[in-house]
Amino acid sequence: MSATGPKESRRADYASTREQADGAWIARIEEGSPAWEAGLEEGMRILTVNGVELHDLIDWRWEADGDLAELEVYVPEDDEVYACTLEREPGEDWGVDFTDVLFDGIRTCVNACQFCFMAMLPEDARASLSLRDDDYRLSFLQGNFVTLTNVSDEEVERIIRCRLEPMNVSLHAITPEVRRSLIGRRADRGIVVLERLLDAGIEVHGQIVLCAGINDGDELRRTLDWVESHDTFTSLALVPMGYTKYSKRFSSSFSEDREASREVVRLLEPYQARARLERNITRFQLSDEFYLDADLPIPEADTYDGYPQFYDGIGMLRSFLDEVGEVCSDRPDDLVRIDDALTRADRRVLFVCGEAARGVIKAFCDVWRGLVGQDKGHAEPFAIRNDYYGGDVNVTGLIVSCDLLAQLPHDLTDAVVVLPEVMFNFDKVTLDGDTQGHILHEIVSRGGVALVAQTNPHDLVDALDATLSDWSF
After folding, report:
1. What is the rounded CA–CA span in Å between residue 446 and residue 435?
2. Where are the domains of the chain?
């Protein structure tokens, strides 16, 4: 049996601001399910399954894999622990959801990475943003990247025994002294653990945060050579180091140097070519920022091998551009209907985005305009300059409320403002601590209509289309 399975979330996100649950607290029970039939309820806590204590969702999946599960359940109202037996038909779900995927708390980072974004936050940033997680369980369950520097031998054996794959690993460099310079004194431990996992056949997706003059050039070649020699290292993403105005160490990156970005693209090309020839995959992939910074075309979709590192910014722009074509080909009537409604209401759509995404959003709007007529077309990107973080921060996911509200027009009576869902965490809070509800209220108070949607063409069109019946301009 393997504990592998679908991740709990397909989108990257920031940590919840709620207090973490202490144990396997039940969040929801599906009516009519085996858990419901057994009398389990929201607010109870499962302590053990078949005599094994639960530390995380992996334990639950592993121990409760059969059709019979003997539980010990704590009931807060009675302050008592009860025995409980769950039974189900083959293939049936237990029907229980938990408040978190980790029941014993999150493993925090023990490193001192030069490029750590947490070290570049403003002093008044809310405390939860300073939580530096480095938990191998979240690597498996949610796709987080981890360094493996805090993984014990027992945990290595658990990863191998339970086949917790793929593991998403931050590699950064292979030469020991470079790794220690980048990561800190425990850098060597990460490689020891990683090699044990690779030797055991565990699939790994890797990441390198590239810092100019530190782990690029010859050091990058050495790292790529090392990855190339390990078959179960199935993808490696290169992302440029980003910095804020609060950084004490960095004041520039690849975003200011087109030629340096192009050199990275050129350096990677022979590795990509060999991988395509030998393995029929690209394997070595660059984040979208490198192509933007280098002023080079975004590669075609087959370059991205099915987008295994989509939420690390690998292929998002290509996916968006391809979906633009799909929407305009498959849903022209929807776009025409939305545009007609906007014409009647004398409104325009403002797609809020980070400065890095302005070009692809504009491409969508231009294609839409071409479809409905050049004299029409009521959609346009509204790129937010990130003054809160400064530096070279320009991505949509790091938009904050204070920048958004300061830069949106005070008079929005002619606007439908579409906010990107990714700027909010699971609690619908922005990185500067504002709530989605307050932001929507502020936009409405300025005369605007406000929507929140995922930033891909189909979802943007769906959100606008679904709102048509509620528009009363």
Report:
1. 17
2. 24-98, 117-314, 320-470
Architecture per CATH, domain 24-98, reads as Roll (2.30)
pLDDT tens per residue across all 473 residues of the chain:
334 333 333 333 333 434 444 569 999 999 999 999 999 999 999 999 999 999 999 999 999 999 999 999 999 999 999 999 999 999 899 999 999 999 988 888 999 999 998 889 888 777 777 778 899 999 999 999 999 999 999 999 999 999 999 999 999 999 999 999 999 999 999 999 999 999 999 999 999 999 999 999 999 999 999 999 999 999 999 999 999 999 988 888 998 899 999 999 999 999 999 999 999 999 999 999 999 999 999 999 999 999 999 988 899 999 999 999 999 899 999 998 898 888 888 899 999 999 999 999 999 999 988 888 766 668 999 999 999 999 999 999 999 999 999 999 999 999 999 999 999 998 899 999 999 999 999 999 999 999 999 999 999 999 998 887 666 54
CATH of domain 117-314: 3.80.30.10
CB 379 within 8 Å of CB 371: no
Q: Which residue has the tokens 């020991």?
A: 176
Give the single-character DSSP code of 43: T
The pTM of the full predicted model, rounded to 2 decimals, is 0.86
Helix, strand counts (H, E) of the chain: 15, 14
Backbone Cα Rg of the chain: 24
